[in-house]
Amino acid sequence: MNNDLRDISKIKRATGLSITDIRLVFSAMKNNPDDTIEVIQRFRSQGYTDIKKLLKENYSEGPPLTQKHIKEVENKIGYKLPSQLFELYTQKNGVYFEGAYFPVNESNSWSNDHICIECLFGIGTEMGIEQINQKAFRTDWGYPDIGLVIGDTPSSMHAVIMLDYRHYSNPSVVFVDTPRRHHNAKIIHLANNFESFYKSIQSFST
């Protein structure tokens, strides 16, 4: 019996899930049996039963994440993520929005009263937060050294969402407008914490 079959048998014994669904999660977890078991058990504790639908709907940016994965990224980037964002990453590894915006009171490259939001970056992908927060990438785009880039707008990285760690260990959320690289960026306060920010995202369709 090869290693993959042995691992799938182990997962089958631990979860009772169908082989087809096990293979979906096993592949997403890069063939790590222990992480696969943890993710499946978390899915079930949250009341999910359709694994294929769940992977498609909830992990649009990257593979499912364990707490171990997230903590490793925290150590790599040198920042402790807000608890609400940490929890979000255990449920959705990156989020894409359709027609989403956030109201603001300052003019910016989008409008006088709102900004558009395209996505919150995931972890472990080409555009994961551990990649876009490398010093060379941030310097090239002219982002201020205030914290972490966590989200993008339809401007393709010319205007981004950041966690601002300058004043609080639980960072505020800001919009950073850099219409031209290497020029002074405009920083607009959005919310005092990530939880308030995430709950206040609105949709043009409603």
Tally of discrete structural domains:
2
Structural class: alpha+beta
Biggest sheet strand line-up:
6-5-4-3-2-1-7
CATH fold-type name of the largest domain = SMI1/KNR4-like
- The number of helices is 9
Largest sheet: 7 strands, antiparallel
* CA-atom Rg in angstroms: 19 Å
Proportion in helices: 25-40%
What top-tier CATH class of the largest domain fits best?
Alpha Beta
User: In whole angstroms, how far apart are the ends?
Assistant: 54 Å
Low-confidence stretches: none
Order of helices and strands: HHHHHHEEHHEEEEHE
User: Judging from the principal axes of the Cα atoms, what is the shape?
Assistant: elongated
Mean pLDDT score, rounded?
A: 81
Could you tell me the number of beta strands?
Answer: 7
What can you tell me about this protein's structure?
The chain has 206 residues and is of the alpha+beta class. It has 2 domains: 56 residues; 137 residues, SMI1/KNR4-like (3-Layer(aba) Sandwich), CATH 3.40.1580. The chain is built from 9 helices and 7 strands; from the N terminus they run H-H-H-H-H-H-E-E-H-H-E-E-E-E-H-E. A 7-stranded antiparallel β-sheet has the order 6-5-4-3-2-1-7. Strand 3 and strand 4 form a beta hairpin. Helix 1 runs parallel beside helix 3 and helix 2 packs across helix 3. It is elongated and about 60 Å long. The N and C termini lie far apart (54 Å).
